[in-house]
Specification:
By secondary structure, the chain is of the alpha+beta class. 20% of the residues lie in helices and 19% in strands. The protein is built from two helices and eleven strands; from the N terminus they run H-E-E-E-E-H-E-E-E-E-E-E-E. It has one domain.
């Protein structure tokens, strides 16, 4: 009798967990599809500006970026839109995560000289139905060239990051694969590199586990923790958003997305 009761309990818990997972996936997919409408439009604008300005995102002498905040006043439905803010442009010494007033909160020292879009989702205090896997989370997208290569400017002989557009403008420095943005790599980070805690060949470097925490990303964006009797596992919900309707976020389903570095060496472990 006891064994039958135990088996029934396990069966019912399994059914309940499956139904809960299905519900979480459905909410997540809906909100990511809504976010894609907004972020894809920004990505298209970035691609056009990259070509028009010959990769020079010199928005001002110290920022090198463009930023947007989204609410109901922007014309986007504040009840359905899950995006809080978007920043895009060139990652420079003046605006990466370790600065006192950073622009890019998920871009580390190892991302200097690269081009990015950074998306922060609304918190549950602003949008009470936001998916827990998106709640106040920030995702970094890094621009890729036409062959799937990371676009970057690199460093000068003194070790200083070059100005945006440098490799594009100087004859012979930039390969043709950097003349336009062909797509974006997704980084679902929990930490960012600071000076000195990375290794390898730029731009595909690895970082150490004691890097700086990203505010809001205690677990990586898209991560859902599954609890069952006596065990715990997790799933990247972005693996359910790889269809074209999810736009730029389809890249977040890639196996290399939940890592804190470009070499996909340091996993995005919980903070």
């Amino acid at each position: 009798m006891y064994l039958s009761f135990l088996l029934l309990t396990i069966f019912l818990n399994t059914i309940s967990a499956f139904a809960s997972l299905e519900s979480e996936i459905s909410v997540f997919q809906s909100q990511v599809a809504s976010a894609a409408l907004v972020v894809d439009a920004v990505a298209d604008q970035m691609k056009a500006q990259y070509i028009q300005n010959r990769a020079d995102f010199l928005h001002s002498s110290s920022t090198y970026h463009y930023a947007y905040s989204y609410s109901s006043s922007t014309g986007v439905d504040g009840l359905t839109n899950p995006v809080a803010s978007i920043r895009y442009g060139y990652i420079h010494y003046s605006n990466y995560a370790s600065q006192s007033s950073p622009v890019f909160t998920a871009a580390g020292y190892d991302n200097l000289g690269q081009y990015a879009i950074e998306v922060t989702f609304k918190s549950s205090s602003v949008k009470n139905d936001i998916s827990p896997a998106l709640d106040n989370k920030t995702i970094l997208f890094l621009a890729l060239g036409t062959k799937g290569n990371l676009i970057y400017t690199g460093f000068d002989s003194g070790g200083s990051v070059l100005a945006p557009g440098t490799e594009y403008l100087v004859a012979g420095l930039s390969p043709s694969t950097m003349y336009s943005i062909g797509g974006f790599a997704c980084r679902l980070k929990t930490k960012t590199a600071t000076f000195g805690n990375f290794s390898g060949t730029y731009p595909y470097q690895s970082i150490s586990s004691n890097a700086s925490n990203i505010s809001g990303n205690k677990i990586y964006p898209g991560k859902l923790v599954l609890n069952s009797i006596g065990s715990e596992s997790s799933v990247n919900l972005f693996t359910y958003t790889t269809a074209p309707v999810y736009g730029i976020f389809a890249a977040c389903g890639d196996a290399k997305a939940p890592f804190n570095d470009n070499s996909a060496t340091t996993a995005a472990v919980d903070q």
